[in-house]
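Researcher: We're teaching a course module on how sequence relates to structure. For the next exercise, students receive a sequence and then see the predicted structure as tokens, so they can try to spot secondary structure elements on their own. Here is the exercise chain.
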Amino acid sequence: MSKELFDLTGSVAVVIGGTGVLGGSLADALGAAGAKIAVAGRSRERGEARAEAIRAVGGTAGFFEADASSRASIAAMREAVTKEWGVPDILINAAGGNDPKVTVTGDHKFEDIALEAWNASFDLNLVGGLLVPCQEFGPAFCAAGRGSIINIASVSAHLPLSRVVAYSAAKAAVLNMTQFLAREWAPYGVRVNTITPGFFPAEQNRKLLFNEDGTPTARAASILGHTAMGRFGQSQELAGAAVFLASQAASSFVTGTDIRVDGGFLSQTI
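Model: And here is the predicted structure for the students to work with:
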């Protein structure tokens, strides 16, 4: 198989949420494949560190501060990236996370969720995790006649998980809107897909998965018992799916689809 299928040399990739564990791993993967990487997010410290790590292994990367829920912020970031490297052609929307305020557990029931907290979860996972970035980058991609948009969903988008009700609902909307945009922008040469990660330990879920002494929680044991491979994922295991979807040579006829990287979590019911 030709290496050119997965060569991203000449591409410019924007990774929103590249300051986090999973987003950072995706930034690393696309950088290793040759793309120039714009690490976008709110944490300058983590963003600069990620960009430096990519440069340290021979890649090209920079940090661009951005608030994914603000159209003005994303527009300014897009313009800055374009001025630096030209019109981007890859966008990864990796911003998101669960808010404990919308978690149904113990004495905190569904009817106790405040509307403000519910809206904040949707702002983070749907508005900032897809809507605003796609509104800003989509027209630019369409005008250029090319582009790959990769949205990050969740296994909870397919079947809702206990406790994380707002997160599950927002991620389900990410799947739905991805298919909508795939149809809208296919005539312009723009592909829109999702990656559905299984359970990958990161900042947002570590307390749900591990006790303070590092041992797995009861919830973690339940998750592993439901995962065919019997283990959590490692962030670098998302790399292949991301590079495949980012590459025009490898996935030119792929749009509106979802690639599950979940160790078989969604392959079984009980």
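Model: If you want an answer key for the exercise: The mean pLDDT is 92. The first strand starts at residue 12 and ends at 16.
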